[in-house]
Design a protein that fits this description.
The protein is an alpha+beta fold. It is about 40% helix and about 25% strand. The protein has 25 helices and 30 strands. The protein starts with 14 loop residues before the first helix and ends with a strand. About 30% of the residues are buried.
């Protein structure tokens, strides 16, 4: 006992605690237990590895020894004197059996067997097996080679050697087989395994003893606390130390800082990693450093530290036998002064939020809403406000990831409106660099505050020249807030303050977030309205072809002019067909509005689908007629979307469908209530083709008829809708005559025809859509077409293949010859087997090599997967694999199976 000191408490160890402590080192949760388990696992793994290695080595040595003994005995017996004479004696078994048994017993082998070249045993340890076939390989021994092989035996795996017996002429006259069980040879493992087990056991005993000593030493050093208790104690200590709103500093007896919590670092502006440094070297105010290093008790002493008033308490730690030093607590008392001004600030913020709710979102225009946000926040919250939206937002689209798209400056407003400013102007498109506060806020979805822009290298990296001008202009601080509405990031708003005002603080972020949240909802409403409006405007254009497909049959030009108001239902199409043919389509849905445009899109899609079936024009119009009737029934006044459901009825549509074949120069056409096409011949004469009119689509009940016209090369076929020739101020006949006059000029390209026709016939205020197509015909010459008639005889296929190969060589298509030969062979063979004659083969050289096989059958082949046991059925599968496209089209006298092959 020391006078003046209180006795230190001593931990008394109860008997049950001591017993529990003795057992605790065996627990896996303790460090000693974990070390013991690790040592145990290592010892067991090493012991297991040594045992496995020993067994494998013994097995390998035993196998080698068994192989060597078997080979030695077999070769020695095969080369022993008198063995050849014994084999040629009248009773070889009588002579060889005693000698073989004697050799087996002396060598310790399991068997020594003499075998004839035919594999019949002459000797065996078991006499009842003499005369039976030898079990083992005798092929190589009969050729003069000694072999060894491992075979299963009754007592385990055995090694067997077979050696040839040579006569004086070096011919194999017999074989000697000798073998021994491998288990007889292996005995090393049984002798060394006990020693290995003993070493492992000794290692376990040493590991147990070492773990006990380590556990006892750890207990003494930790004063009886186990690792879990120590961890919990330090976790509680750390949580309390860093969560309190008071600064805590521990100074050692040598005047060095031992510990400082987060609050103390903030209040005293301590440098990074101050622990271990002298208090006088931390850059503190002199009077604050004197109090901390004086080594005396201090109670609620108020000191000035920078712009803060700190209440300091200091207590010595060497009382009651503790270590020398002191503990100081700091409390910031400057917050009490700020309470009086907070009420006034809160009232001003509420007024700003109320004005923002009234003044932002007065229109459904994205740009105007962004300007209203900038105007309401300037002067009362910020000196400048910039609003940047993702580029798709201005168009009404929804950005998938704002951080990775270009931004557009939508609004800039400042305290001096009308004067120049250093910020990006409105309309500027740019991207935020990843280090900028705006990019960081967008990626995290959180606001970012930059109190001093001169010390923000990430912001300055956005545009060094521009940011330098901003700082030179006097802008000091920034708070940027992402514009988020309904889970979608739309952009970012940035609030800027000049150096004459206080910089933004963290507590002002909530007001910026409120302003941004309300503005984001208004901007999103405007964006949605813009998107719906844009969708209505672009629907009509999206349903029409934007570019013409590649084809060599026609040189095509087109024009489409919408009406001045509303959305119409006119459409056109150019559809490539098999055999280098091309389909031209022009149609007009009766009526206007989105419903007519949507119906037009459905009809255009249906025409594409029907065209893939390669149907004639009259059948395609019949299918469209049925489709229009169903649409009219389902969505008309009496259907689900009729008067009761608010739908718009459909009264019908017109359509003209034409197919041009550049090989035969024939054009097959059919129309359904559509104006007739105009044919401009090479000499400039114009003719309106007399096609069967047919009823408009949707009326039903009447068939459609086709007409076929032979077109000269260089003719122009002009298709159009009634909006071109019919107007409120002129009759349709007048429009047709005007069209004839506009077309009556030779040697004009399709582009020139479209331009001249629109210049002559386009009304000043068109009330209906206008679709116009001008197509100049081309011809596939005879030098690019070859055809052969094929007899219905499989033997004729070879001759056709030879002709095809010669033609392809003439065309310079040797690289495609093999594929063409394979495809044509399959198609011709199928036609001979399954169709009726006559059979005709045609090759057409266009953008691709087109192979066609025609017959008079109407049965179409079908692709199927042949089973592994099927002898056939894989031909069409090969055709589909090698051809770019293939299919079937029907003609008036049968069908044509075609395949397109890519030309290298």
């Amino acid at each position: 006992m020391i006078p003046g000191r209180r006795p230190r408490s001593r931990r008394r160890e109860r008997p049950e605690v001591a017993g529990r402590r003795f057992r605790s080192w065996l627990s896996v949760r303790s460090v000693a237990g974990q070390v013991f388990v690790l040592q145990l696992v290592i010892v067991l793994l090493l012991g297991a590895a040594a045992t496995i290695a020993l067994v494998l080595q013994v097995r390998h040595d035993a196998t080698d020894e068994a192989r060597g003994r078997s080979v030695a005995v077999a070769e020695a017996f095969a080369n022993s004197p008198g063995i050849v004479q014994a084999l040629h004696s009248r009773n070889p078994t009588k002579v060889l059996q005693p000698r073989a048994e004697a050799a087996r017993k002396k060598s310790g082998l399991d068997f020594v067997v003499v075998v004839t070249p035919k594999g019949i045993r002459l000797t065996h340890p078991k006499p009842n097996r003499i005369g039976k076939h030898f079990i083992g390989a005798i092929g190589r021994p009969l050729r003069g080679h000694t072999i060894t092989e491992s075979r299963p035996g009754t007592l385990g795996p055995a090694m067997q050697a077979v050696a040839p017996i040579f006569d004086s002429h070096h011919r194999v006259v017999g074989l000697v087989g000798a073998g021994i069980t491998i288990q007889k040879v292996s005995g090393l493992a049984n002798r060394q395994l006990p020693l290995l087990v003993g070493a492992v056991s000794a290692s376990l005993v040493l590991a147990t003893g070492g773990t006990a000593l380590v556990s006892r030493r750890l207990r003494r050093q930790t004063r009886g606390l186990d690792p879990v208790e120590m961890t919990r104690m330090y976790e509680h200590h750390d949580a309390v130390l860093h969560s309190v709103r008071e600064g805590v500093l521990i100074v050692g007896g040598d005047g060095r800082l031992v510990l400082a919590n987060d609050e103390a670092r903030r209040l005293l502006d301590l440098p990074p990693r101050p622990e271990g440094r002298l208090v006088d070297d931390l850059g503190l105010e002199p009077h604050v450093a004197d109090v901390l290093a004086a080594g005396r008790d201090v109670t609620d002493e108020v000191l000035v530290a920078g712009d803060r008033l700190l209440a300091i308490n200091n207590r010595l730690t060497d009382r009651d036998g503790g270590p020398p030093g002191s503990v100081a607590t700091l409390r910031d008392s400057t917050e009490l002064r700020a309470l009086s001004g907070r009420a006034d600030v809160a009232q001003k913020r509420l007024k700003l939020l109320y004005d923002a709710s009234v003044e932002i979102g007065t229109t459904l225009d994205v740009a105007r809403t962004a300007e209203e946000l900038a105007q309401v926040a300037v002067d009362r919250f910020a000196d400048f406000v910039t609003v940047d939206l993702a580029e798709p937002v201005a168009r009404g689209d929804e950005p998938l990831a704002v951080g990775g798209v270009e931004m557009r400056r939508e609004a800039v407003h400042g305290i001096r409106p009308g004067q120049s400013h250093p910020f990006y102007p409105v309309g500027r498109v740019f991207s935020f660099v990843p280090t900028s506060p705006q990019a960081f806020g967008l990626s995290r979805g959180e606001p970012v505050v930059e109190a001093d822009l001169t010390e923000s290298p990430g912001w300055q990296a956005q545009d060094p020249e521009r940011t330098a001008k901003i700082i030179e202009y006097g802008v000091r601080s920034l708070v940027t807030v992402p514009l988020r509405a309904r889970g979608v990031l739309l952009g970012v708003v940035s609030f800027w303050r000049m150096k004459q005002r206080e910089p933004f603080e963290e507590e002002e972020v909530s007001l910026a977030e409120e302003l941004a949240a309300h503005a984001a909802v208004c901007i999103d409403n405007a964006r949605r309205y813009t998107r719906e409006h844009t969708m209505a405007v672009t629907l009509q254009h999206s349903l029409l072809p934007r570019a013409l497909p590649e084809q060599n049959a026609l040189d095509v030009a087109f024009r489409y002019l919408p009406a001045e108001s509303g959305v119409g239902g006119d459409w056109f199409d150019v559809i490539p067909l098999p055999g280098a043919r091309v389909a031209l389509v022009v149609g007009d849905v009766v009526g206007h509005g989105l419903h007519a445009a949507a119906t037009m899109g459905r009809l255009r899609t249906a025409v594409h689908n029907f065209s893939t079936l390669d149907l004639p024009p009259d059948e395609i119009l019949s299918h469209l007629d049925d489709l229009i009737a169903r649409i009219d029934q389902d969505e008309g006044p009496g259907g689900p979307d009729g008067d009761g459901g608010g739908g718009e009825g459909i009264t019908g549509a017109t359509c003209l469908y034409a197919i041009y074949d550049p090989v035969t120069r024939r054009c097959t056409m059919a129309r359904a209530g559509h104006p007739p096409p105009a044919l401009v011949r090479p000499d400039g004469s114009v003719e309106f083709l007399d096609l069967p009119a047919g009823p408009p689509l949707g009326l039903g009940g009447l068939p459609f008829e086709t007409a076929e016209v032979q077109l000269a090369e260089g003719s122009n076929l002009v298709l159009y809708t009634d909006g071109l020739i019919e107007d409120r101020r002129r009759e349709i006949d007048t429009g047709l005559e005007m069209l004839r006059d506009a077309l009556s000029h030779p040697d004009r390209t399709p582009e020139e025809i479209c331009t001249e026709v629109l210049d002559a016939l386009l009304p000043s205020n068109p009330s209906d859509d206008i679709a116009l197509i001008a197509a100049r015909t081309r011809v596939v010459g005879g030098d690019r077409v070859a055809s052969w008639d094929v007899p219905s005889d499989p033997a004729a296929v070879a001759g056709v293949r030879a002709e095809v190969m010669r033609k392809l060589a003439e065309w310079g298509l040797d690289e495609a010859a093999f594929t063409a030969e394979l495809v044509l062979s399959e198609l011709i063979t199928n036609a001979i087997r399954h169709a009726t004659g006559p059979i005709r083969v045609q090759l057409l050289r266009d953008k691709a090599l087109i192979c066609e096989v025609s017959d008079t059958s109407s049965t179409s082949p079908h692709l199927r997967y042949a089973a592994t046991t099927d002898e056939g059925g894989r031909g069409l599968f090969l055709v589909a694999q090698f051809a770019e496209r293939w299919g079937t089209r029907y003609t008036s006298d049968g069908k044509v199976i075609w395949a397109e092959l890519a030309i290298p």
